[in-house]
Target: tRNA pseudouridine synthase A
Amino acid sequence: MKLALGIEYDGSAYYGWQRQKKVPSIQDCLERALSTVANEAIAVYSAGRTDAGVHATGQVVHFDTRVCRSEDAWTRGVNANLPADIAVRWMAPMPEDFHARFSAIARRYRYIIYNHHLRPALLVRGMTHYYRPIDASSMARAGQCLLGEHDFTSFRALQCQSRTAYRNVHYLHVNRKGLYVVVDIKANAFIYHMVRNIVGSLLEVGCGNQPEGWIAELLACRDRRQGGATAKADGLYLTAVEYPSHLALPMPMSGPLGMME
Model:
């Protein structure tokens, strides 16, 4: 039997999604909780492997199991065995050919920036503080050259091992909501550090260090060393993973991020 789960987490205390030796990871915590409920070893596969410190409201995983448990057991029961900063939000039975990563057709990320000259004290693990004034409209205009399919070498981490840097960006929105600047981006998939590198370069435009046309030049030069600094992990959220409609997977619950809509 194959099951899918929707997972939400605060990644601040973890060294990323992927299981690692001697350091805490989201995957390890989830597999331990599922194995306790199933009374057998469970291995999970995710739609995306988020970096250390990155959060999620819409992560999707799947796993195979030989045991039958109620929906309540796979949700509330698993949550009872998880730390407070990780939660199962829904469960759905899936066809045998489903794969959380390879069946996905798009991913959505949100990056939240608190833009004020003084640092905040509350919710600091869920956003990035940027003290210089930011022109969100300028960032939005500059980012439109990234729409469509391109070689995103200028926005991939130097240690990225993906076979290709080509990705298809469906939309990129930058909006100011009071003291917050919110970047929303959707693509068929993302390469390592792609979102954080895009945000870091857009911030160079937003604070006036670079003209709006610089992003297009950066995309064309295919040289990561020419781009802005990688934005911090703490403001980044995996908000949704999209699948073909016939799978009818539940939509993620936005939670506190809904206040940014």
